[in-house]
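Re: the 207-residue chain
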Amino acid sequence: MSALRSIAPLARDTRGATLTEFGFVVVPLCVALMGALDVGYEAYVRSVLQGVLNDVSRTAAVEDPIFEAEGDTVEERIEAAIEERVNRIARNATYDIEATNFYDFSGVGDAEKLTTDHNDNGEYDEDDEDCFEDFNDNGDFDTDGGDEGVGGADDVANYEVTLTMPRLLPMAGLIGMSPNYNIVARAAVRNQPYADQDVPPTVCGEA
């Protein structure tokens, strides 16, 4: 009984309870704060990347566009301009920039346009002598009717930029996420009508 009476005051002492409770809370709290900061930073980079792409793509829509960035071709100057501006907030980022051009907006990401479909099946049948607009002028019917580069007058330039960079905080492994951001931005802009647009040739299959 004497032993019990000696520890009774300790059982009633709550002076360290707050510190113990804080120890239970601090770890999940820190993880939640870091997660919120990580997601917020990713959203910020995505917003900046999309804004820069929109601005650069509009600049590139004119004939002989002027960029402060250097490059031998318009495509190279576009890539350099995007990297230069986004790198101000993105650390150790790498970029994959694809520029393709289409005859009009309806063709972006779609197959080349059929002009004759003899059996009305919505598909190109070479043996049925179906015809199509060969936008990239390669003689073949392509399921993606775009051509490389920004194109010419009145063409629709379609851009897709993929930015890859390490996450801001090393907490992705705690919840099984990728250690890198993979952020994609897209933009489609019609080039200015500074000349006559090239009309794609019509190609027909052979029976």
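The beta strands are 94-102, 114-116, 131-133, 147-148, 156-166, 180-190, 202-204.
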